[in-house]
Specification:
This protein is mostly helical. It has helices at about 5-10, 20-35, 60-75, 85, and strands at about 50, 55-60, 95. It has one domain (about 5-95). Helices cover about 45% and strands about 10% of the residues. β1 (about 50) and β2 form a beta hairpin. α1 runs antiparallel to α2 (about 20-35). The N and C termini lie far apart (about 30 Å).
């Protein structure tokens, strides 16, 4: 439902397959937050990383940090570039339980 809003964020940051993981995670988070403007898109957000190590859930602590960064950036003038809070973000993850 909020794909138009999310697509604009990916385009704004010029996301590509070579975007570093920390930046890609932030871009995806911001895109999700922007998509909440669309009806039916709620505030709950789960993030997973799928790579050669398998599937990992992004921990709530990392999601909270992303929310803080997002809120600061929305109320400031900084966009387009990434500060150290994003580029040096420690992404906390857990592996899902095996079935």
């Amino acid at each position: 439902m909020g794909d138009r809003h999310a697509d604009n964020v990916f385009a704004w940051y010029r996301y590509s397959s070579t975007t570093p993981l920390n930046e890609a995670l932030y871009i995806a988070f911001e895109a999700k937050k922007k998509s909440e403007m669309a009806g039916g898109v709620g505030p709950m957000t789960d993030a997973l990383i799928v790579d050669s190590n398998g599937i990992q859930f992004v921990e709530d602590s990392t999601m909270q940090t992303l929310l803080e960064i997002y809120n600061e950036r929305e109320h400031g003038a900084q966009r387009r570039s990434f500060d150290k809070r994003i580029t040096e973000l420690k992404i906390e993850t857990t592996k899902p339980d095996a079935p």
